[in-house]
Amino acid sequence: MFNSWKYKSRKEKGIAVLMTASMMFMLVPVAGLAVDGGIAYVLKTRLSSATDAAALAAARSLSVGLTLSEQAAEARARALDFFDANFKENAYGTKNLVVDAVVAETEAKTRSVTVSAAFDAPQYFMRVLGFDKIRISGRGRASRRDINLIMVLDRSGSMQTGYSVGDPASPCEKMKEAAKYFVDLFAEGRDRLGMVTYSSGYFPAYDPTMNFKTQSPSLVERIGDITCAGWTSTGTALSVAYQHIKNIDEPGALNVILLFTDGNANTITADWPIKTKTDTRYGGNYGFKAYSTSTNSFSGTAYCTSLSSTCSMEPSPCKDASGDQWDRNSGQTKRYYFAPDWNPNWAPQPIRGSIAGQDDPTTTGDTSGIMKHLSSSITSSSEYLTNAGCAFSTANFLSNNGQGT
User: Fold this and answer.
1) Buried b / exposed e along 238-251 (16+ C-beta atoms within 10 A)
2) Which pLDDT tens digit goes with each residue over 280-313?
3) For residue 17, which of 62, 123, 300, 319 sits 20 to 30 Å off, Cα-Cα?
4) Segment among 318-327, 356-365, 395-404 with least mean pLDDT
5) What is the mean pLDDT of residues 190-207?
6) 126 pLDDT higher than 90
7) pLDDT tens-digit map of 65-78
8) What are the pLDDT digits (tens) for 219-277?
């Protein structure tokens, strides 16, 4: 038995060497695949980062240039520059790098920049199996939708208060510079930009157009003409900007209203009804002037200073579209009707205008109105309606008989 065991032991000597040698044919490729595969994964990640960064930078550059071909060329050049900054040729032992950037309209109102790249990555352990290199490719894409943008710029007096006109430190001038810079971020011929300015009333300062950089005057030049004065009729201006977007009616585009402002609105625009009847008001400091038929004019002043007293308030002195009032027929220059039977033919339409007042509830100040809701220029301040007696404020309240509209 002893001799048999000894013989068997001699026969099995060297088996570990044989098994190790045979396993090496399996272990080396597996280890090599793990190492070389890990290196390839890292290179693939770096390639993806480079193509993504290049595509994003290129998409942002689609606004550079005055023609579509210039914009595409600039975007492609920017893509290649950004890729080179993030992944140099022959970096990490790679070879045969190929990079391409393509600008195309991939959807309606959408342009995309696609950056593709590929290179040969070196293999180390896998060379024993005849694999010297592996081809790695990557692609990044960024898209940019065309934009319809209406800028709504606050040019009210608070933007200039405490500063001289043109002072670069004033909020008005800073807003203008910010707006000019913002305009430059958009693409001529693809994006559509317009501008509405507002103070006491709104002004359609720049109709929406795709030629906002080359049209004369350009949008940037128009922004430079702005001066700041007046009240703050934000709501009306936003409503007008929305109507611009609605009228464009362009599915697929990105529709944006951008508001530049420094505070709260303090002006209301509405269709104000004209007072057509006599009424009786109690107390308060209401003014009343008696009418003389002999002189065809008002004379004298009385006040309702007691809370228990009453004053008779005549209809509004406003004129209708034909120039008629509550006391005369069409075309009459002298008064024709008298209280209480005022002109039954007088049916004035409401007057559209703006009324402004203090926005500080702790402060008592003038109420200004009725002003034109539509300004006549980009520099105009408060423009009061010229219809006889239609403008009123606390300063001239009594002289207008306390009637407002």
Assistant:
1) bebbeebbeeeeee
2) 777 655 554 544 555 555 455 555 666 677 777 7
3) 123
4) 395-404
5) 95
6) no
7) 889 999 999 999 99
8) 999 999 999 998 899 999 999 999 999 999 998 899 999 999 988 888 888 888 888 88
Report d(CA 384, CA 369) in Å as an integer. 7
Task: Locate 314 and state its tokens.
Answer: 């005549």
Mean pLDDT of 135-156: 95
- In terms of Cα–Cα distance, which of 91, 121, 404, 106 is closest to 272? 404
SS3 track for the chain: CHHHHHHHHHHCCCHHHHHHHHHHHHHHHHHHHHHHHHHHHHHHHHHHHHHHHHHHHHHHHHHCCCCHHHHHHHHHHHHHHHHHHHCCCCHHHCEEEEEEEEEEEEECCEEEEEEEEEEEEECCHHHHHCCCEEEEEEEEEEEEECEEEEEEEECCHHHCCCCCCCCCCCHHHHHHHHHHHHHCCCCCCCCEEEEEEECCCEEEEEEEECCCCCCCCCHHHHHHCCCCCCCCCHHHHHHHHHHHHHHHCCCCCEEEEEEECCCCCCEEEEEECCCCCCEEEECCCCEEEEEECCCCEEEEEEECCCCCCEEEECCCCCCCCCCCCCCCCCCCCCCCCECCECCCCCCCCCEEEEEECCCCCCCCCCCEEEECCECCCCCCCCCECCCCCCCECCCCCCCCCCCCC
Residue that has been written with the tokens 């900007």 in this structure: 241
pLDDT value at residue 310: 74
